[in-house]
Amino acid sequence: MPYGELGHVGKSNCCCCVGFSSAFGPVTPGCGCEEALVMEIVEDMKKRQQGRGDQGQIQRQEAMMEEIETINTKLDAIMDHLKMERS
Q: Which DSSP letter does residue 16 get?
């Protein structure tokens, strides 16, 4: 399942057990007694969602557009230097 499709990822409690849940359902590492591990997993999953989900796609597209603008500027300078017409 892609990170962008996980939906909400968060810590969950059931009775005295701790775990986390997302679109793939609840998970309770360490038989539900590992709160520090759960928090580490939740934080890591959220970072991955941001980096690889829709937000990450938008950031990569913006970076690509900046590079294209730089290339276009350089190409224009080369064409001017060679006295080539632009179409």
A: T
